[in-house]
Protein backbone atom coordinates (compact mmCIF):
# COMPACT_ATOMS: atom_id res chain seq x y z
CA UNK A 1 0.00 0.00 0.00
CA UNK A 2 1.26 3.46 -0.86
CA UNK A 3 1.42 6.27 1.68
CA UNK A 4 -0.72 9.35 1.11
CA UNK A 5 -0.56 12.65 2.94
CA UNK A 6 -3.17 15.33 2.23
CA UNK A 7 -3.67 18.60 4.04
CA UNK A 8 -5.40 21.95 4.03
CA UNK A 9 -4.81 25.16 5.99
CA UNK A 10 -7.21 28.10 5.99
CA UNK A 11 -6.76 31.29 7.96
CA UNK A 12 -8.52 34.59 8.42
CA UNK A 13 -8.30 37.40 11.01
CA UNK A 14 -9.74 35.39 13.94
CA UNK A 15 -9.76 31.74 12.84
CA UNK A 16 -7.29 29.14 11.62
CA UNK A 17 -8.26 25.64 10.45
CA UNK A 18 -5.70 22.88 9.89
CA UNK A 19 -6.88 19.58 8.42
CA UNK A 20 -4.79 16.70 7.17
CA UNK A 21 -4.89 12.96 6.67
CA UNK A 22 -2.31 10.21 6.39
CA UNK A 23 -3.09 6.89 4.85
CA UNK A 24 -0.70 3.93 4.90
CA UNK A 25 -0.72 0.34 6.09
CA UNK A 26 0.86 1.34 9.42
CA UNK A 27 -1.32 4.37 10.16
CA UNK A 28 -4.53 5.80 8.83
CA UNK A 29 -5.49 9.07 10.47
CA UNK A 30 -7.37 12.29 9.92
CA UNK A 31 -6.84 15.42 11.98
CA UNK A 32 -9.21 18.39 12.04
CA UNK A 33 -8.31 21.40 14.15
CA UNK A 34 -9.64 24.89 14.66
CA UNK A 35 -8.21 27.84 16.55
CA UNK A 36 -10.22 31.03 17.12
CA UNK A 37 -8.76 34.07 18.80
CA UNK A 38 -10.58 37.30 19.58
CA UNK A 39 -10.27 40.07 22.15
CA UNK A 40 -12.31 38.22 24.77
CA UNK A 41 -12.34 34.52 23.82
CA UNK A 42 -9.83 31.93 22.64
CA UNK A 43 -11.08 28.51 21.45
CA UNK A 44 -9.09 25.52 20.23
CA UNK A 45 -10.44 22.16 19.11
CA UNK A 46 -8.66 19.12 17.71
CA UNK A 47 -10.28 15.89 16.55
CA UNK A 48 -8.15 12.90 15.56
CA UNK A 49 -9.54 9.71 14.06
CA UNK A 50 -7.01 6.92 13.70
CA UNK A 51 -6.46 3.26 12.97
CA UNK A 52 -3.17 1.45 13.48
CA UNK A 53 -2.32 -1.37 11.06
CA UNK A 54 -5.89 -1.50 9.76
CA UNK A 55 -7.30 -2.22 13.24
CA UNK A 56 -10.47 -0.80 14.77
CA UNK A 57 -10.85 2.93 14.20
CA UNK A 58 -10.70 5.21 17.25
CA UNK A 59 -11.09 8.90 17.93
CA UNK A 60 -9.62 11.45 20.29
CA UNK A 61 -11.10 14.92 20.76
CA UNK A 62 -9.69 17.79 22.77
CA UNK A 63 -11.03 21.27 23.20
CA UNK A 64 -9.99 24.33 25.13
CA UNK A 65 -11.76 27.62 25.80
CA UNK A 66 -10.47 30.73 27.57
CA UNK A 67 -12.58 33.84 28.06
CA UNK A 68 -12.42 37.22 29.74
CA UNK A 69 -15.20 39.71 30.27
CA UNK A 70 -16.21 42.46 32.62
CA UNK A 71 -19.22 44.40 33.70
CA UNK A 72 -18.51 47.47 35.77
CA UNK A 73 -15.97 46.63 38.47
CA UNK A 74 -16.63 42.87 38.24
CA UNK A 75 -14.15 40.96 36.06
CA UNK A 76 -14.74 37.40 34.93
CA UNK A 77 -12.30 34.79 33.61
CA UNK A 78 -13.43 31.37 32.40
CA UNK A 79 -11.43 28.36 31.35
CA UNK A 80 -12.67 24.99 30.09
CA UNK A 81 -10.92 21.92 28.70
CA UNK A 82 -12.23 18.54 27.50
CA UNK A 83 -10.47 15.31 26.52
CA UNK A 84 -12.64 12.52 25.09
CA UNK A 85 -11.32 9.33 23.52
CA UNK A 86 -12.95 6.15 22.30
CA UNK A 87 -10.03 3.78 22.95
CA UNK A 88 -9.68 4.49 26.69
CA UNK A 89 -12.99 6.06 27.77
CA UNK A 90 -12.16 5.63 31.47
CA UNK A 91 -9.67 8.50 31.06
CA UNK A 92 -12.16 10.91 29.50
CA UNK A 93 -12.11 14.13 31.47
CA UNK A 94 -13.16 17.73 31.49
CA UNK A 95 -12.43 20.75 33.62
CA UNK A 96 -14.00 24.16 34.03
CA UNK A 97 -12.93 27.17 36.07
CA UNK A 98 -14.88 30.36 36.63
CA UNK A 99 -13.17 33.27 38.41
CA UNK A 100 -15.05 36.46 39.30
CA UNK A 101 -13.27 39.31 41.02
CA UNK A 102 -13.47 42.97 41.92
CA UNK A 103 -12.11 45.13 44.72
CA UNK A 104 -12.39 43.13 47.96
CA UNK A 105 -14.14 40.20 46.23
CA UNK A 106 -12.83 36.93 44.74
CA UNK A 107 -14.95 33.89 43.84
CA UNK A 108 -13.61 30.71 42.22
CA UNK A 109 -15.66 27.73 41.04
CA UNK A 110 -13.78 24.73 39.67
CA UNK A 111 -15.28 21.48 38.37
CA UNK A 112 -13.15 18.51 37.34
CA UNK A 113 -14.50 15.25 35.91
CA UNK A 114 -12.15 12.31 35.51
CA UNK A 115 -13.54 8.91 34.65
CA UNK A 116 -16.66 8.63 36.80
CA UNK A 117 -15.66 11.12 39.53
CA UNK A 118 -16.79 14.74 39.60
CA UNK A 119 -14.92 17.10 41.92
CA UNK A 120 -16.20 20.59 42.75
CA UNK A 121 -14.18 23.29 44.52
CA UNK A 122 -15.76 26.59 45.52
CA UNK A 123 -13.93 29.50 47.13
CA UNK A 124 -15.32 32.88 48.15
CA UNK A 125 -13.75 35.93 49.77
CA UNK A 126 -15.75 39.10 50.23
CA UNK A 127 -14.37 41.79 52.51
CA UNK A 128 -15.80 45.22 53.14
CA UNK A 129 -15.02 47.58 56.03
CA UNK A 130 -17.91 46.16 58.09
CA UNK A 131 -18.55 42.77 56.47
CA UNK A 132 -16.38 39.71 55.88
CA UNK A 133 -17.29 36.41 54.27
CA UNK A 134 -14.85 33.57 53.60
CA UNK A 135 -15.86 30.13 52.28
CA UNK A 136 -14.08 27.05 50.94
CA UNK A 137 -15.95 23.91 49.85
CA UNK A 138 -14.69 20.70 48.23
CA UNK A 139 -17.03 17.90 47.19
CA UNK A 140 -17.07 14.65 45.26
CA UNK A 141 -20.23 12.58 45.62
CA UNK A 142 -18.61 9.46 44.12
CA UNK A 143 -15.80 9.54 46.73
CA UNK A 144 -18.15 10.60 49.57
CA UNK A 145 -16.28 13.89 50.08
CA UNK A 146 -18.23 16.93 51.28
CA UNK A 147 -15.99 19.43 53.09
CA UNK A 148 -16.80 23.01 53.98
CA UNK A 149 -15.12 25.73 56.04
CA UNK A 150 -16.70 29.17 56.33
CA UNK A 151 -16.85 32.31 58.44
CA UNK A 152 -18.92 35.49 58.22
CA UNK A 153 -18.82 38.70 60.24
CA UNK A 154 -21.10 41.74 60.16
CA UNK A 155 -20.38 44.85 62.18
CA UNK A 156 -22.70 47.85 62.54
CA UNK A 157 -22.64 50.81 64.91
CA UNK A 158 -24.92 48.94 67.33
CA UNK A 159 -24.24 45.23 66.79
CA UNK A 160 -21.75 42.54 65.87
CA UNK A 161 -22.67 39.20 64.32
CA UNK A 162 -20.36 36.37 63.48
CA UNK A 163 -20.76 32.78 62.39
CA UNK A 164 -18.20 30.09 61.58
CA UNK A 165 -18.60 26.47 60.64
CA UNK A 166 -16.90 23.36 59.41
CA UNK A 167 -18.30 20.29 57.66
CA UNK A 168 -16.19 17.15 57.32
CA UNK A 169 -18.85 14.82 55.87
CA UNK A 170 -22.55 14.76 55.10
CA UNK A 171 -24.37 15.15 58.42
CA UNK A 172 -21.15 16.01 60.33
CA UNK A 173 -21.26 19.79 60.60
CA UNK A 174 -20.35 22.12 63.46
CA UNK A 175 -21.40 25.77 63.61
CA UNK A 176 -20.69 28.57 66.08
CA UNK A 177 -22.54 31.89 66.30
CA UNK A 178 -21.95 35.14 68.15
CA UNK A 179 -24.52 37.96 68.20
CA UNK A 180 -24.19 41.14 70.27
CA UNK A 181 -26.51 44.12 70.29
Number of strands: 13
By DSSP (H or I, 4+ residues per run), the number of helices equals 0
Principal-axes shape call: elongated
Query: How many whole angstroms does the radius of gyration measure?
Result: 24 Å
Q: How would you write the strand order of the largest sheet? A: 1-2-3-4-5-6-7-8-9-10-11-12-13
Q: Termini separation (Å)?
A: 87 Å
Please characterize this protein's 3D structure.
It contains no helices and 13 strands. The protein is an all-beta fold. Strands 1-2-3-4-5-6-7-8-9-10-11-12-13 form a 13-stranded antiparallel sheet, with no helix packed on it. A hairpin with a 3-residue loop joins strand 1 and strand 2.
Kindly list the characteristics that best describe this protein:
single chain, 13-stranded antiparallel β-sheet, elongated, 13 strands, 181 residues
Strand and helix layout:
Blueprint: E1 4-11, E2 15-23, E3 27-37, E4 41-52, E5 58-71, E6 74-85, E7 93-102, E8 105-114, E9 117-128, E10 131-140, E11 145-155, E12 160-169, E13 172-180
Summarize the structure.
This protein has 181 residues and is mainly beta. It contains no helices and 13 strands.
